[in-house]
Amino acid sequence: MSRDAVAEVRERTDIVDLVSSYVELKKTGRSLKGLCPFHQEKTPSFVVFPDSGNFHCFGCGRGGDIFTFYMGAENVEFREALQELARRAGVTIDQALPITPEIDAHRQKLIDLNELAAAFYANILTNSDAGSPGRLQVQQRGLSDSVIAKFGLGYALDRWDALVRYFASRSIDPEIAVEAGLLQRRDGGGFYDRFRGRLMFPIKDREGRVVGFGARIVGHGEPKYLNSPQTPIFDKSSLLYGLELAKDDIRRLDQVVIVEGYMDVIAAHQYGYANVVAAMGTAITESQIGQLKRWSKKIVLALDADAAGQMATVRGLDAMQGALDRDEVPVPDANGVVRFERKLNAQIAIVQLPDGQDPDDLIRLKPEQWPALVEMARPFLEFYIDSVTAEMDDTDPRSKSAVVGRIAPVLQQVADRIVQAHYVEVLASRLSLPTSVIMSQVRRVTVRSGVSPLPTTRRSLTVERGARLSNEDHLVAVLLKHRSLCRTVIASVPTDDLLDIRNRELIRILSDPAMPDLPPEQIIAGLDDLVADHAERLLETLEGTPAQFPGHVEREARQALALVGKERFVFLMRQLHATIQAAQHAGDVQSVDSLRSQVGTLADRHRKFYPPPSPYFRDSRDVRILG
Question: What is the pTM of this model?
Answer without folding.
Answer: 0.58
